[in-house]
Amino acid sequence: MTRPTIRDLATAAGVSIATANRVIGGSGNVRQSTMQRVKEAAQEIGFYGLGAIDSRITAAKAKYRLGFLLHQPSRQFYLNLAQALRSASQRISDCVLELRIEFLDDLSPQNTAAKMLELAETCDAIGVVAAVHPIVIRAVETLQLQGKPVFALISQIDSTGQVHFIGIDGWKVGRTAGWMFDQVCDRPGKLGVLVGNPRYRCQEMNESGFRSYFRECASEFTILEPRSTFESKAVAEEMTENLLREHPDLQGLYVAGGGISGALAALRSTGNAGKVMLVGYELMDVTREALLDGAMTFVISHPLARLAEEALSGMVRSVKARGGDGNFTSVLPFEIYTRENI
């Protein structure tokens, strides 16, 4: 059998010989869909220049650099989110993405804003996990004026819809957590609440939704005033120990923000693991183990793979829109885990 020719390739792909030549030689503009059709035809007929066609398709793809500011690298959830973003970038085939992911140990609004502005100097769009604060909002507005899209991840930066958001509905999360306690607790009692920082809008909504459920559906429960963990394991452990000491009849604990590992450590060290019902966030090593040994009853989790895909695709579409008025917000369904479905 003779080796397939360019004429054979053009016929198989349904294009002109000139177009087939441009795809192979990389000369002239050819649409991505046409190049892909030529590639598929080359695979089908065993055309010798498949490697060259692959190279031309890759070289012709649009390239974007996307920057992300996540929280401390010591926190497993943010390491998992970073990995989900990297994996999702490999699954996008119509463009080439370069991700620049940075972790912030200093979560102050001043440092967050400064890092956002710095990262935007080399990136086409920014994704950030940040607290609501005037200094952060000013940085967002500065970047928007520069034509740099900003996406709030996990927690909304404002309530006006002016900043794109990829995450879950905190109000529904909080009400769902309330329903869990109402259904599982054998009798009404005291429930403690831990929040990381009320300036994180997701945590504020988590707590608000939680209280809303009990006001409406289970008012016989006593919801204690929330205690702040400042996103610290050590502080969360101390706050949990204080709750247990001050309220020996504590029936449940809702961790509405950062600090689940500290809360677990306190429950285990005081012998209350499995006795005090615990609901918290994100399926990761520490919460998976807690579900298995009974220290936790429910885990509410972000769908990280889908969140990463929505964030990347939204950021690319926003960059392509060049400052248009499109809304690229995506509110995702959350996941619920027990020890029976992990």
Briefly say what this structure is.
With 342 residues, the protein is α/β, with parallel strands linked by helices. It has 13 helices and 13 strands. The strands form 2 sheets. Strands 6, 7, 8, 9, 10, 11 and 13 form a 7-stranded mixed beta sheet that branches. The protein has a 6-stranded parallel beta sheet with strand order 2-1-3-4-5-12, sandwiched between helices.
Describe the structure.
With 342 residues, the chain is an alpha/beta fold. The chain contains 13 helices and 13 strands. The strands form two sheets. Strands 6, 7, 8, 9, 10, 11 and 13 form a seven-stranded mixed β-sheet that branches. Strands 2-1-3-4-5-12 form a six-stranded parallel β-sheet, with helices on both faces. The longest helix has 18 residues. The termini are far apart.
Uncertain ranges: none
Along the chain, the helix and strand elements come as: HHHHEHEHEHEEHEHEEHEHEHEHEE
- Quote the average pLDDT: 93
Task: State the major sheet.
Answer: 7 strands, mixed
Any descriptors?
alpha/beta; 6-stranded parallel beta sheet; 18% strand; 342 residues; 13 strands; single chain; elongated
Itemize the secondary structure elements and their pairings.
Layout: H1 6-13, H2 17-25, H3 32-45, H4 50-60, E1 62-70, H5 76-91, E2 95-103, H6 109-120, E3 125-128, H7 134-145, E4 150-153, E5 164-168, H8 170-184, E6 190-195, H9 201-217, E7 222-223, E8 227-228, H10 233-246, E9 250-255, H11 260-269, E10 277-281, H12 285-293, E11 298-301, H13 304-321, E12 330-332, E13 335-337
Parallel strand pairs: 1-2, 1-3, 3-4, 4-5, 5-12, 6-7, 6-8, 6-9, 9-10, 10-11
Antiparallel strand pairs: 11-13
Helix pairs in contact: 1-2, 1-3, 3-4, 5-13, 6-7, 8-9, 10-11
